[in-house]
Amino acid sequence: MSFAPSRSSSDPVARALDAAASTLVDAITAVSATNPVVLIDGRSGAGKTSLARMLVARWPLAGRVQLVALDSVYPGWDGLDEGVELAREQILVPHARGLIGVWQRWDWDAAAPAEAHAVDPSLPLVVEGSGLLTPVTARLGDVRAWVDSPPTSRKNRALQRDGDAFRPHWERWARQEDRHVARDQPSRLATHVFAVP
Questions:
Q1: What's the number of domains the chain is made of?
Q2: Which domain holds residue 186?
């Protein structure tokens, strides 16, 4: 779902995301770095993508900010862990070392890697996606968010957004998210935890 809430929005989801974005803006400002890294994790449909887009739109620092959505990185419906590892190797580690990172977009229709994208280490970076916060990746993020939302709400939003493309794979993907949550305890690795209705 895409949200463009105002501060007076009557939509409780929009209000929660608006408040979360404001909190993250303050946290980014407090980091006092020119190229901070923000990691946003949460289960499918929780509001990660909407929060990341709102954050980029309100970015508090001068200049451009880079946004990478792991939906463009996961190598297929069984690729949650592999996608996170690709993001770590190709995006987060190079950025932390001051090197240009290069990652390939996954073409879901062709079920194959597609074009390459570069990540500039001199620019700030927002990465969002399910499975992102692990004990290894958390060390590479200055600001780390876990977005939580009730299962029914998440499923309704995800299927409304992605429809028939996601419906047959919902349980398959949810099992990978369950493993991530049990193994990595992402809410404990986050600097900020947000509840979205």
A1: 1
A2: 12-195
